[in-house]
Structures are given as C-alpha cells and as structure tokens.
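question for whoever is on the cluster today: can someone run the full assembly for these? two chains, 769 residues total. i dont have access anymore since they changed the login thing
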Amino acid sequence: MKHIKLVILLLLGAVVVSCQKDFLEPVPSSGITSANYYTTADEVETAVINMYDGIQGVNSTDPDDNHGVQNEFYLTEMRSDNTRTKSQEGEAAQFESYNVAATNGIVSNYYASFYNVIFRANVVLANLGVVEDPKAAAKFEAEAKFVRAYAYFNLVRLFGDIPLIDRVITPSDTDVQFTRVATSSIYELIESDLTTAIAGLDNTYKTRASKAAAQALLAKVYLTEGNYLPAQNLCEDIINTGSFGLMDNFNDVFYSELNKEIIFAIGYLASPSSDSEYFSAEWMNGVGRSSGVNYVTSDAVGALDASGGDRTQYSYRIDPFQTSQNQVAKYFPNGDSGGADGKTFANDPTTAGNDWIVLRYADVLLMHVEAIMAGANETSNGAALTSFQKVRNRAGLTTPVTSVTKDDLLLERRVELAFENHRLFDLIRFGKAESVLSAYSANNGYGYTSSDLLLPIPQNEINISKGLMKQNPGY
Amino acid sequence: MKNILKMSNSFQIRVWMGSISMALTLLVSCDPSISGFEYDLPAANSRADLTPPQASFSASVTDDYLTYTFANTSTSATDYVWDFGDGNSSTDFDASNTFPGEGKYTVTLTASDKHNVTSTFSQDIDIVKLEVPQAIVPDILNPSFDEPGDNGKYTTPWVDNNLGKTMQISTSSSFVGGKSAKFPNADTDPRVGYQSGIAVTPNTDYIISYNYSIETGDPSSITVAILGGTVIDMSEVAGATIKSFTGTTQAGKTPFETVTISFNSGANSSISILITNTGTATGYVEEFTAAVKE
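^ ran it for u. tokens below:
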C-alpha cells in the first residue's frame, strides 16, 4: 500500500511537470520562418554565410535566378575597351556597343542580385541581438557591414543615385525601395560601414570579409572621392602587415587559390555544383550558353603586347578554335585550357570552381601610387616608385622607373588587372573615361555618349515604382 | 435521308451565321470615326506633348585647364546646339571645347525635338589656371628657445608631460640668441623636448637642421626624432619615427655641431619633433630650421 501511494505521487509529479506551457503550445519544428529562425549565434552565422552565397550567385540557366558576381564582367569589362562579345549578338552585345537598353536582363539581374545581397546583410544586422558573446556579435556586424558596403560600392558606381536600404524592409515599404538618393549619401553609408568593418575584423579569411579587405575597399572608396591621404594610410597599413605579397609567377595568382596575393575573393567549388561558377565557360568558344563573351579587343591586345611584360602570355591567348579571335587566359575553367581546340575539357566547364578575385595585393600597391600622386599628373616620390616598381619587377620589367605619370599608372593598372573588372572604374576614377572611351567607340563604330558611363535603372524597377523612380539620362 | 436533311440544316445555319458576321464587318468598316480621321486636320484629336525636351548638361575639366568636356544629360530631345560663349559652337551630342584663355564663359545648350519645341540650359564656366600648390614650409615654434611663452617660460611649446619631464633652459651655452635647451644627466634626471602639430605637405621631401653640443665626460648622446603625426606615449615613438639622428660628439659646452636631417613626410599632414638624451653629461640643443628640399 505504501508503495502505491508513492507511485501515485510520482505519477502526479510527472503530470504536473509535463503540463508546462511549451507542452501545450509547442514551438513548431517544421514551420521555420525568418521571424523565428534566428535564436543562437550558430544560426546567425548561417545568415553570415548566406551573404557570400548571394554574391556567389546561382549557377543556372534560368535568367530569373540571381547570378550575383558571375555576371559582373558584362557590366564592367565589356563596357570598357578591354572586351566584347565574340559575335556581336544578343543583349550581351549591347554593352560593348554602348547601346544598353533599360530592359537588358543582365543589368536587371545584377541590380536584383546585389540588392538581394544587401538584404541578406541587413538580415544579419537585424538578428545580432540573439548573439550573446559581444565579441562574436561585433564580428558578425563587421562582416555584414563589409558585405553591404561592397554591394553598395558596386551599385553606386554602376547606377549613380540608387535607393538606400539599410534595414530589412517589406514589400509595402515602397518609398524606400524606389526613392533614389544622392550618391553622396550612399558613400556616407559605405564609409561608415567600412570603418566599422575595419575595427571589428582580423585577417583570418580570404573568402570572407577581413580587415585588409575592408581597408583596401575603403582605400578605393577614398580614391574614388579624391580623398587621398586616408587612402594612402590604409594602403600602407596593408603593406606594413607583411601578410600579403606578390606571387613570383603571375599565372599562379589565378590558378593557385587563396595565395598570398589574394586579399578578398568570392569562393567557388566545382563540386557541389551549387557552389560552382559558369563565367569561365562563357569566356570560351561556344562552351557555355553563349557563343563566347568577354573576348579580348584588339585594343587590349595591343596594350598587353606593348606593356604587359611577362603578364601578356598569362592574360590572353589566341582562340585555338577561331584564330582570328582572342580569349582571356585568366580563369580557364578549373585551370583546364581546353585541349588543342580550346573547347575540350576533362570536367564540365560550366560548373567550374575558380575563385573570383575581388581585391589583390598588386591592386593595393598601385592604389598606393595613386594615393601619393593625389590627383597630380606625375610623381617621383620614393614610396610611390617603390610600390610601382614592385608590380613591374614581377612582370619582368625591371628597368628602374624614375617618375610615374597618371597615364603610366592607368596603363599599368590596365595590363596588371586586365579582365578583372577594374578597367571601367579605373577610367572613370582617373577622369579619362570620356576621352578614352569616345575614341575607342569612334574607332569601332560604337555609340558611346557620356551618359553611357551610368547603366540604366532596370525598366521593371521603373515600372513597378509607379512613377517614383526616374530613369538615368540617355535611356 | 434523315441524315442528309440534318446536314443541310446545319449547312444552312452556317451560311446564315456567315452572312450575319459579314454584315457586321461591313457595319464596322463603315464607322466614320475609324476611316474618317485621315481627312482631319492634324490639330484635331491630337494630344499635347507630355514630354517636351529638357536641356541639361554637366561640364568637367580635362588635364588641360582650358579644355572642358560637356556631358549631355538632356531628355526627350533629338537635336542639339552648343554655344560655348567664346564664339565656338557645336551640334554634337556630347561636346568638348578649348577656351581661348582665362575668364568666365556662359555655355548654353539648346535641345529641340522634331516638333521644334526647344529648351535651353546655361552654365557659367570659370576658367582659372590652377597654380601647382606650393609645399608647406614647416613652421617650428620657438626654434632657438629664446622666445618667452604666455607664462614667460622659454620651454613653450616644447612641453608634453605624458612623454616626460620638460627639458631645462640654459643661459650659459648658446649658439644664437642667448638661450638653449638643456638636457642634464639622463640617468638621474631624464628630460624631453617635444613639439607637435607642425604642418607639412604629405609625401614631400624636407630638411630639418639643428645644432647640439655635449659636455665632456661619460659617453652621452642627444637624439632628435622626426615623428609622423603625434604620439601620446613613449611606446608609440618607435612606430611613428620617420627619421632620427643621435649625436655623440662631446667637445664641451660651446662648440656646437650642426646636424641636417633629410626626410619625406610620407602619409602625414603634420609632424612632431622629439628630443631625448642618454648618459650623464649635459647636452644642449639650439636653433631648429626647416625647409622644403629643392
């Protein structure tokens, strides 16, 4: 009898315990939404990784998928005098002929992709409250702000005045989505985000945000604004860490991933294919979806042949299948140059694993020269010459340089960083876009006008803004 | 037979329906509002142009200060006439012009469409030849320790208590002006002289010179360091030093030795000078001068 009482008491206890609130109102484990998902630091870190996934973009043939940075070469390199399509066909050819339509799908894809990246960064920032360790929270914040600044810096240089979205918004926040704010306000956010990023990051990663990446990006922002002294200090901070250097062989920069020259790259893997890229295949002859894009112009061939030194052979090659054409030799799919005909690959070239380099040390050295030159036409400053000479020495151009002009520096950037999506922005930053591109356009019968330095705001954005958004001039 | 009748019935119905629809078509095509308007005058039923031309442009100077490029940002226009205000004109979409000389020019763009609706936009261009900015000559305050500061002290502004006890002033050993900075026994009474906020042009070659003497005795030295920016603690000195010189000539109080430090200001818009000494023998520092290196 005694025992029965005990058993009843125990049972009663069990009943009392199991009747807590979460038994009657359990948190649904199958109905995860963005509103209830983020509860731990680990879960916020998935949002952090998700930002890089957004930049990486989707490797698919669906034009409605966000292709992220994989489409960037169309909007930058193919709008400069460096590259063009192989056969002047389709909406891809609108870029080289300075005839971009507001309905161009590649433009709207890039716009949507990078606003999506900004959204992903804002999600991280909105959920920092659940991260208990203040150090971890500061690091996540710094990473998110770096990514947000990177996305805005690309967008503001491509589109001019753009909507400023610094928080998670809903479809009903139409005012924010469609109000174009002045570039100066966008640059304010970029600078403040990168300053936070520099304070909160270290140099652990190369395919995630790092202190050096934020410093290099901010240096470029300052150069774009003509704020030279802080840019010089940032470049010298990176140079003085000693963690970065130039690869001895120029080719290794592109085919030995995460090498000492890389400051920030977007990581890709051949497998799983969801982490792979297709741009490498597009640059080959009829291997990807197009018959061949980002083909090298004779203008760029001329510049590389005359001034590239050892870099020329690793920068472009004659298309083995069509010898009148020239292909980019950086970023062969998985490092495979495609056999005798240049289009036969051991592995599927459309799911390649080449990391896309955003910032590398040679870029920083040349930015250092640009900062010291400080808008003048020439410099013979010792520190500037040292940085300039380092880049040239690696290319086998070891004759000592005694002074550098603005044109020398622009040319050096062209041959060092060819086909890495720098050329157009360099021309604009150096104030040379107008003269260089109008001459190039006239030589090739293209339709360049000054309004082509900005892309059109995608027409679908204009349409759904119901009159709030105005198009850029010339479109 | 029944079937044939049925067929002919449905055939009849189709013929009927066909003729009705033909009649309808005839009716529609006889509507005067559709075929008629080709005889109307152009003004009738036409709509106002809701997007008239709007002229605008932005100007930017090229490497040559006389030559400007003009980026056309007009909307809804097809034809353009540029008047550069110096007698030159152009009908290009984007334009560029080399002005004859310094002065103020009004550049006018007239944009028009095929209705001959025009819009004009003007902007004044001020053409001035920019002088190459001269490098700042560093202004070292109280360089010979002969000027009494606000409080009558000859050490002004060479004082920073965070870095150390301020040097003394000697009236018995001087190169010029009767007074000099004095650094007594560094082992028992270490002292510093520090002046910050000396404005310089970044990335410019400079020369700073000074004079020093050290009394005879145990090996002693006087160090003058040029620092980029400012420091708030002695631990930062090594990292901030652009160039320094340590003098060890011990020939007594009066024979001063002149030292010249050449340096490049690097990424700094201001520099500081820090004077320290070692050893037991007293040292003196006198008459700083600064100049841009030619």
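summary bc i know u wont read the tokens: Chain A has a mean pLDDT of 94. The two ends of chain A are 93 Å apart (CA to CA).
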